[in-house]
Amino acid sequence: MKRAHIYVSGRVQGVFYRAWVTDHAHKLGLGGWVRNRFDGRVEAVFEGPADLVDQMVDWCYDGPVHARVDSLLDDYSEPPEGLADFQVRSTA
Question: Which domains are seen in the chain, by residue range?
Answer without folding.
Answer: 2-88 (3.30.70.100)
